[in-house]
Amino acid sequence: MIFKSVGDRRPYPEHGLSHREWARIPPRQVRLDSLITTKAVLDLHSLLAKDSTFYGDLFPHVVQWQGEYYLEDGLHRALRAALHQRSVLHARVLDVDASETPGGPEAVQEAEPPRS
């Protein structure tokens, strides 16, 4: 199995991060088999397009909530990694649980070191 689970919604609370705020989160390695998707359907045009990340972030967006990792954006990039026989990908990870504590998302970014 490529992912831990395939979901079709975002079960975590709305975080409200803009593209600019996501860009401030340093990417780190995440295992594909630890991810739960938030989309059950993929557009093959997106998967096969050569310029699929031209207008977006190069790194997928993952939300950590209640100990689980939810793939919010970048499903086609994660599948490409799997098709290339990779078990990890670099993603920006937002820990929603930690961002609900004093200090907000800024504190999360500094406290969460990149995994190798």
UniProtKB/TrEMBL annotation:
Pfam families assigned: VapB (PF23719)
Cited InterPro entries: VapB-like_prob
Region (Disordered): 96-116
Domain of life: Bacteria
Protein name: Type II toxin-antitoxin system VapB family antitoxin
